[in-house]
Sequence to fold (628 residues):
Amino acid sequence: MNWALITLFALILMGLGAVLHLMNRTVINPDDETDKEHFSIDVLADAVFEHINDEINADYAEMELPISEIRKREKEAEDLKTWIRDCTMGDPADRNSIKGKIREILELNEGVSSETINYIIPFNDPDSMTARDKFEYLYAIFQREFETHTLAHMDEEFHFTDPKYDENGYPYYEVTADDIDRAYEENSRVGALDDKFEVVIQRIYETMYGHDVADIFIYDDAVNDVEGGTGGKLHDHYNFFKEKQARERGETIKKAPNNYDVLYVKLGGKLMRMSFLSFRTEENLIRVVQNICTNTSKAALSRVNPRVQAKLKDVGESRVISVCPDEAAWSFWVRHPASAEARDIHYLITHKNNEYPIRLIEAVVRGQFNVLITGNVGGGKTSLLKTIAGFLDPRFEIRTIETDAELIYNDLYPEKNVVSLVETDSKTLYDCITDTKRMNTDVLIVGEINEPRLGSAFVQSTQTGSNSGFSTMHPNSTEDAIDYLQQAEIAEGVPAEVAIKQIIRSFNFDIHQVHDAEGNYYVEYINEVVPYVYGDYPTDPAEAQIEFYRRTTNRKYYEINHIIAFDKETMSYKVVGNLSAASRERLAIKAGKDMCDAIVTMLDNAMKAQAAEAAATMNADYYAAEVG
Fold:
């Protein structure tokens, strides 16, 4: 039997069949209802699914094909399975691979071409396009031009993050259908056939394997967070009498959005409600909530386990939280980590006079001080914790402790000696900190102090197990951070006075990172915790007795030395103090006298310049008042 001739004959027949099918499908009659139904996203998605399913499940061993061809097709089927599994886990490469397969099927098997693509989405008739159609078409055009940070480039041109104002005067951020219509009219870029294909393929991919209307934002480099189902009504209630009265008055009742109508996207720190997009049905939202964590979480999402945390397989391993009843309504959060720019602190601290906090932070790190980065949730604490590791001595042995790996120091700083420990079912964070004492730890970095025992362990380790330590917390002030750590120590059996003495030796600087309602990220203040040293007792017996009573009943253990503050009025950093004598001495020893002198001089000169500027402003105001 001549296998070569049989194979050639089979390929010829397959080629003829494909050509005939394509010719048959591309002759489209616009009035033919069958053709209209065929060229819809849902029908094409079903057809694509059927083709892919056939390829995956085919028994190639039973086909009369050469062994090499059988192996090739079996390999392609295995690749398809991998792409489908990993694209739901956030892998960009597998997502692109499966989208390439979708295009192949559409062109070769389903008759989608330059002549027929407008039947799927009316690109040739903007008035018939939905806001979603227009947005995704614009997005494809911009993505072809810029490749990365696509939404940020669109925002630069169309100002999506410009604030709107509610009836109480509060600013908020929302992108409406009217905003998209305006952007579409203002756009001067010309779309190509590939852009149209990208929209159709992306829409089919979202329907089959992706995350519906949230999908493109999850893969956008510029987006900070994506949230679905976080808002809106949970139940539909029909009020007959309210609607009857409205009809009698000639009014239309505005339908409130359901939770499956809600999608939020955070861009540049501003949380925008994408009100022109909707998951359309609760079933669709549920599919996304379940799929986004199915293959990456440790446990399955269920009513028994109604909240799961997972990680996507994207470049930065974005963190995902999915929630279902009974804990809350169906919803999900995707938080993107800082990008590769996380190594450069200038991308995080950006406002006027940013050299003051940046140079001080560098000095604090090089001086081997113990630092807490405090602030609100989502304030950029972890991102800042990533950047400051760049200032660490490359000879140091760095150990990181986290509930879930977010710092990814090994990827950010592959040239440094880093061991990253993560909590497991059998190892708590407390156990991990204890383990670092046996690992020659120079620098201990705890991702987040979120429980008293962890706070106590951090305090103990920074005194006995490492040269310096860094962590994040959520207190509102330096005093609150000290109080929390003291209570944590007391809960572990340490006497209150001993605890406070330990804390002020293990907590040297507080860098307070903030993300405000306007979307700004900045360091609100940098404070130094200075142990309070009492002087000699007064020589007068009566005064000495009073001083003794003061020290024993209301003893002062520390002072807060304010060094850097952020001025919201001018959106700039101000220097309000200088390093204490003890910190100057330590900095000179650990980082060198030259660095110490440079930092002290910078802070002194900044305060003199600010004082001179304030005096000049005061004189100008006084002169203006006199003239007036």
In short: Residues 529 and 560 are 5 Å apart (CA to CA). Residues 126-233+256-335 form a domain with the Beta-Lactamase fold (CATH 3.30.450.90). The chain is about 45% helix and 15% strand.
